[in-house]
Design goal:
The protein has one domain. The protein is 39% helix and 0% strand. The chain has 2 helices and no strands.
């Protein structure tokens, strides 16, 4: 059993599937640009789980990122 988190295992499997499928296929997005890729959805799900109900904001340029950062800000 791998020591990698589940979201990384899924991400790696999806990337391998894309490489086997051909080079012309990118991540699918709707015309409005509001839909997240599978990888982005998994990262956001993971971050929400860690945030435990805290307000969470995401940035749109997660595609191709090697890591994501979850920062908890404490108000004064």
């Amino acid at each position: 059993m791998s020591q990698e988190p589940e979201y990384l295992q899924r991400l790696r499997a999806q990337q391998q599937k894309q490489h086997k499928g051909g080079a012309g296929q990118g991540t699918e997005r709707s015309e409005s640009g509001q839909a997240y890729s599978i990888q982005e959805q998994e990262v956001l799900r993971w971050a929400r789980k860690l945030a435990q109900g805290t307000e969470l904001r995401s940035i749109r340029n997660l595609a191709g990122a090697r890591f994501a950062v979850l920062v908890r800000l404490q108000s004064a």
